[in-house]
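Supplementary Methods, section 5.1.

A reviewer requested that the exact input to the structure prediction be made available. We therefore reproduce it here, unchanged from the version used in the analyses.
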Amino acid sequence: MPSISDDDELAALRRRAYAPGADISSDPAALQRLIELESRSSDDVVPAPSEVEEDPVDPSGVDEPADAPRRRFRMPRLRRSMTILLTAAALVVACAATALVVVQRVQTDPLQAGATQIARVSPDSAFVVPSVLFRGVTSGVTAYAEWQGFRFITYPSVIGGDDTARCLTVWQPDLLDASSNGSSYDGEIFTQACGAGPFPANVVALLRETTPERSRTEFPPDTALQFVYDAANDEVVVFQG
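The structure derived from this sequence is encoded token-by-token as follows.
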């Protein structure tokens, strides 16, 4: 028989399972404990006479012949409470598995995209940004340290203002010829991108054999890079694909 404390615990758990406002379905540990105690309780119950069928006793006291039909044992039916608990447990497991699949499918991390993070680049207040790179932006321009010959700046969107996701520009200063009359760039990776809502600004680049920027890096041909602005840490995160 369950102990006194077990009986009290079982009664409390049953109230959480069957009383109005039951909340045990959201507590897997409590649900498992209730199933355990219900099982112990049901093990102590002697099967009802209807559950074990026996042949009438011969009043003569003569043993049954060898070919007489044996008594039949009928499996006790599950108690209604146990059926409810097993169903609730199955629903909890199914919901947890479904939630995991949904989260993995629709909440992909825009900073990862299946690539490997190889660097985080911090702001560099000493770098003087060529004005040609932020025409139309009057404030809020942030420059970042040099990485593999690349430089980065972020700035507010000209269209959205300071409250929108920031924009990101990636280039190599060695390939930029800026003057008062204009500018020219002797490479392939001079890219600007702006964030949108929860999606951060990000730039992708492929360093091909003939890409001028690749000669200023340590990467082999056909290396794919992704530059992502991490607003929470004010850093440019670099991924290699």
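Residues 51 and 116 are 64 Å apart (CA to CA). These observations are discussed further in the main text.
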